[in-house]
Amino acid sequence: MLVKVASALNLGLHTVAMEVEVNVAQRGLPAFEIVGLPTKAVAESKERVRTAIINSDIKFPERRIVVNLAPADVPKQGSFYDLPIAVGILATVIGCKLPERSLFFGELSLDGTLRHTKGALLLALFAKERGVNNIFVPHSSANEASIIKGVNVYPVESLTQLVLFFCKQIDFKPVTHKENDSKEEVSEAEFDMSDVLGQEQTKRTMEIAAGGGHNLFMIGSPGSGKTMLARAFPGILPSLSEKESLEVTKIYSASGRIPPQGSVIKTRPFCTPHHTTSNAGLIGGGSRLKPGEISLAHRGVLFLDEFNEFSRLALESLRQPLEDGCITLCRSRDKATFPSRFTLIASANPCPCGYLLHPKKTCICTQREIERYRKKISGPILDRIDLCVEVPVVDIKELSCDDKAPDFLESSKVIRERIIMARKIQQKRFSSETIYTNAEMGNKQIKKYCYLSREVSQILIKAGANFNLSARSYYKMIRVARTISDLEGVKEISASHMAEALQYRSCEKNENVHF
Amino acid sequence: MKKENLEIGRKGEALAKKYLQKKGYRVIEQNHRTKYSEIDLIARHKGVLVFIEVRTKVGDQFGTPEESFNRKKINKLIWNAKAYITWKGYLKQCRIDAVCIVLDCNKTLKRINHYRNITWVKP
């Protein structure tokens, strides 16, 4: 008896249809074979399926069972074939009819219950695309799948429950579709902006970075507060919009990072990989392609502390994703494209000893050492970073005067309000485009959306002549100026906005300075 | 010694036959020789053709009869069964069972166990 069960196969962020054909033969010696290029985890599923069925108090047929995973030429990986295989066998044992136009997906536990399985959201998206009505997923993964409208998501708890449902002995209701409630969820930052004393200039730069999604580079002596500021950054970020949160959740679902019962991700991701992170860990890779930190930080923040300490290869591989907002990884067997539209926050010391810009301590590095240290970060990378600031050393006196502390300093909440405003303006502006923030604007969009008055363009031309601005930095300045004006809620870029934008290019300035 | 082993084997087979008959198996052949080796018992049970391998041991000191099954021996049982099926032109369900018997030193029955479908899990 042959039963066909529909399922799907996740390859990166891409889903293809798959059919599980289960044949229970009426002749021959009993056996259980799986064909169709199963990898180890799939081949082992026969032990899980057999034990789970027996432990659900259902007799496992002493027949020759052959399971084919079609298409047979794509290597099958992962453990989510357990449920379709088990359903196929159960359908022949019980002789019931399976519900039409349904997909089955999930990993079995030995006791017959279902375990949380990665990629349920991708399956739901695929089902919607193909017009499949019902999907059966493990109950702990049902929450993430239920955010897709128009698909009945059945939260399966155990095989017994499923069998009773097939025999129409119990009523089994799909999970109700949850509207992505617009309730704001504030990301939990380790520090509040008001915890950081002084550093008003840096905070202002961070506000601009958050407002327009610009990349930020902080240079400063050890202990000046770079890391603390960066860790306070998630607190001033607005939560993800509905579209963005779906993009982020897709990546997290595919890489199995959504906890059981977890639903959509609403807060912006904040990734802080250590500087020993490998190239593949940063940009994604492996023999079975996996998203790296840059994709996990999609629509969020990638904070690279001690930027100079990263391997040159890893840093240079950031170039293309920073520009394109996505990365295409190619291997001989596999090809995958992962989105990677993130805000880069990098921090570094100005020299190996760290005290080059310190007002009192003297730097002990030689010119050669400094040059070598700086060379680690190539021009093209710096060129792609819109904002660059020096983080000055905080005066000890400033730290000790407690009386002016909390009410004088702005809290993250206040700053965040302004940023949400600015982002709303951008959302409106780019409603007809595929981009969300000012930082993503290409040259064409800059021409379209950033009108420069004569006075402003005069300033920019003058600055260009004085500072040797490259074409790319020219546009960079306009982008930053646009964000500054958005933060103020002004429609046109004024001269003061442009003047402020011109301040945030200290890394270029430092390049030319001879110590 | 060799002769004694054969005797123990025959005694075990007789015990197994009686045991299975009591369980509702209809024994159709005993000590059937194929081109590879011998099939101890062939029986019918609920429409399924069952090949039975009988293992007999005296005492537990030198390992249990269950331990004496290994990959190679099970493969041999499968070959044997397949040879029989082909020879008979049998086209329905079949399976391979084992009966393990332990005798005590007086050659009386100490325990008898029946294992269904032993080729299911490949050791």
Give a description of the structure:
The complex is a heterodimer of chains A (515) and B (123). Chain A is α/β, with parallel strands linked by helices and 515 residues long. Chain A folds into two domains: 2-166, Ribosomal Protein S5, domain 2; 193-512, Rossmann fold (3-Layer(aba) Sandwich), CATH 3.40.50. Chain A contains 23 helices and 18 strands. In chain A, the strands form six sheets. Chain A has a five-stranded parallel sheet, sandwiched between helices. In chain A, a hairpin with a 4-residue loop joins strand 15 (326-330) and strand 16. In chain A, helix 18 (412-429) packs across helix 21. The model of chain A has no long low-confidence stretch (mean pLDDT 87). Chain B contains two helices and five strands. With 123 residues, chain B is an alpha+beta fold. Chain B is 32% helix and 36% strand. A five-stranded mixed sheet of chain B has the order 1-2-3-4-5, sandwiched between helices. Chain B starts with a helix and ends in an 8-residue tail after the last strand. The interface between A and B is small, with 9 and 14 residues.
Instruction: Give the rounded overall mean pLDDT of chain B.
Output: 87
**What's the CATH architecture of the largest domain in chain A?**
3-Layer(aba) Sandwich
- Main beta sheet of chain A, described? 5 strands, parallel
Separate helix tally of chain A: 23
What's the helix-strand series of chain B? HEEEHEE
Count of separate DSSP helical elements of chain B: 2
- Largest sheet: number of strands, sense, barrel closure of chain B: 5 strands, mixed
Structural class of chain B: alpha+beta
CATH homologous group name of the largest domain in chain A:
P-loop containing nucleotide triphosphate hydrolases
Helix content range of chain B: 25-40%
Oligomer: heterodimer
Structure summary, number of beta strands of chain A: 18
CATH class of chain B: Alpha Beta
